[in-house]
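Progress against Task 2.4 (sequence-to-structure conversion) is shown through the following example record, which the project officer requested during the mid-term review.
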Amino acid sequence: MNWREVNFDGIVGPTHNYAGLSYGNVASAKNQGLVANPREGVLQGLQKAQHLRSLGMIQGVLPPHDRPHLATLRGLGFTGSDAHMLASAWKNSPALVRNLMSSATMWTANAGTISPSPDTENGKTHFTPANLAAMYHRSIEFETTGRVLKVMFPEGDRFQHHPAIAGGTHMGDEGAANHNRFCGDYGQEGAALYVYGRSAFDGAKDLTFPGRQTLEASEAIARQHGLRDGKAVFIRQNPAAINAGAFHNDVVAVSNKNVFFYHEEAFENPAEMQKQLRRAAPEINFDFVEVPSAKVPLSDAVKSYMFNSQLLSPPGDDKMRLILPIEVSETARTKVYIDELLASGGPIGDADYLDVRQSMRNGGGPACLRLRVALSDDQLSAMGARSVLDDALVATLQNWANKHYRDRVGADDLGDPQLMEECFAALDELSQILELGSVYDFQR
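Structure tokens generated for the chain above:
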């Protein structure tokens, strides 16, 4: 049976803005207050998806969430019509509204953690939506994410869904952004690397910025998913990387099959990481591509998002290919390093630089925008919804975005009831396009 990795990209939402909500995300803080262009953002995302399709990859999408999140407003005691609740909340606390208008669901690397069926005891692909407890604007996402994933991957013989890990920030889980799967090929049994920033109860006094992922949450997900014995590895991210702005491990590391491309300062103990992975999966011929700080300082890695790239195995290609943000080509030392890497004769032979600046200004590169799922042909055919792209669906989504999205959203627009109505109208139509059913909290 044929297996492949399918990338599900987050569609940029109609309320995409630069509110600077993510403490520890250097790019988000730097660009706080800039005027955003949601229309350009969603079209850039679709262009990236189309580029992957042109390489022979299968590409899907995940929808944005309804913003503002009316269920949260009601839960906080706001009453009346939707417009009245928004106006009252804006008058009472613009900061609250900015959080409830966030379009951060576009970064679907944080949607959840997925363990493909070859790795699990019961032979099903397992899904756990991330609780994203570290940041308030993201902590409201997991219920809608869980509903979307259940529509796309129906519960049954092939797919199994779990609730988000409970326990607040002590059990903080940031999803696939801190998770790597290694294998010989996608349909073969693999090993999982869970990267955490801190333990739940130790205080992590060596951190300036939050260690969002906890060891205990990672261990709980491995248990939920029933990973085969000895196939889960837990390694701490380097506190220096977190303090430099690598709020998720995918800012300093990316994997594909047997290859791990990461910065020298990504892990607290990189030698131990290699040792444990080889012990967990001796059948895999690991290829560790460790980038030295002398060639790419950690500051340049975070500035350019060189590692927040997609590492792909396009059908028919002998070498792997990096999908990089264009900022890597505009940063002198990262461009020189990538040129040297491609000429080295190693496992990575090609690189493409793509413009996703609307996402990058909020600290989200190509890897942030996608959720990877290893699927067999049988599992692909069993999917629900209409989330896998073809030319017709891409054209429909482009027309939909041009119809519904503004080309300018600033800080003062977030309290505008008209923007709320535009968002709800767009998502009402999108839910029909993608055949999602009733996954949103608003009713129209």
